[in-house]
Amino acid sequence: DAPSITMGKGDGFYDVSELHDLPDPEWLVDKWLRKAETSVFIGDSQAGKTWAAASIALSVASGLPWLNHYSTEPGRVLYIYSEGIKGARQRFEGWARQNNIPLSDL
Question: Taking a C-beta distance cutoff of 8 angstroms, is the pair 31, 24 a contact?
Fold first, then answer.
């Protein structure tokens, strides 16, 4: 017998032959970020990872399309900011100004 390929799932494994039975992904940000999954932003320093993550979080929290293009599923957001709180204020206030939304509404 040829070895089978399996992919992990929360409580077991899927055979490759079972993948077609999986439901289509549900999008938090259309075609960019799926619901109920963990995502990691990886890139060079100063590439915009923090800005991208913050703008996605604010778009989801406000229900606005991300980058005024990709629809979002509105919802509550827990954003863990680990780069210094002063930078968070500048980024979040800038996003709010650009989108004409008071931060207090988020």
Answer: no
The pair of three-digit structure tokens given for residue 35, joined into one six-digit string: 């619901």
* Token output for 49: 């990872």
Residue that has been written with the tokens 């991300």 in this structure: 66
At residue 87, φ and ψ (nearest 5 deg) are: -65, -35
From 1, 54, 57, select the one nearest 29 (Cα to Cα): 57
The pTM of this model reads 0.76
DSSP state of 31: T
Paired sense of beta strands 27-29 and 6-9, if any = unpaired
Q: How far apart are CA 7 and CA 27, in angstroms?
A: 21
By the 8 A CB rule, do 35 and 80 touch?
no
Q: Residue 29 pLDDT more than 80?
A: yes
